[in-house]
Design a protein that fits this description.
Length: about 130
C-alpha cells in the first residue's frame, strides 16, 4: 500500500510539472527559470543538478537517488524536451543527449516495442545532428 501511495504521489508531481510547462508554453512564456522553479517545488531537484551530471550518471541519479520509476522516466524525457526547445544552443545539446539516454534506457528495459518512443528517438537524433553541424 505504501509503494502505491508513493507512486501516486510521483504521478501527481509529474502531472503538475507537465501542467505548468504546458500552461507557460501555450502562453509563450516558457523559460528555463519557470521549469527550474517547478522542478525544485515538485521534484526536489533542479535543472542545474541535471546539467552538472555526467551522462553516465543520469539514469542512476533519476532512478536511485530521486526514486523516479520507469513509468515516469518517459515523462521526464518529455519534460526535458520542452526544456531543450527553449534552451540556448550550448545547453540544448546537453538536454538532447540526456533525453536520448533516457529513451534508450527505456528501450532496453521494456520488451514491448514503442512506436511513439522510437519516433521521439529519431527526432532527438535529428536535432543532435542538426545542432552539431
Amino acid at each position: 500500500m505504501e509503494q502505491r501511495d508513493y507512486l501516486m504521489k510521483q504521478v501527481e508531481q509529474f502531472g503538475k510539472v507537465l501542467g505548468v510547462l504546458i500552461f507557460f508554453k501555450d502562453n509563450g512564456k516558457l523559460s528555463i527559470e519557470v521549469v527550474n522553479q517547478t522542478f525544485k517545488e515538485e521534484l526536489d531537484f533542479d535543472i542545474d543538478e541535471l546539467i552538472s551530471l555526467c551522462e553516465d550518471d543520469l539514469i542512476d541519479f533519476l532512478e536511485d537517488e530521486k526514486q523516479i520509476n520507469v513509468k515516469n522516466l518517459e515523462q521526464m524525457a518529455d519534460i526535458l524536451s520542452f526544456v531543450a526547445e527553449n534552451a540556448n544552443s550550448k545547453l540544448c545539446d546537453k538536454f538532447y543527449f540526456m533525453i536520448l539516454k533516457i529513451y534508450k534506457h527505456l528501450e532496453e528495459l521494456e520488451s514491448a516495442y514503442s512506436f511513439d518512443r522510437n519516433v521521439k528517438i529519431a527526432k532527438i537524433k535529428k536535432m543532435i545532428d542538426t545542432n552539431t553541424i
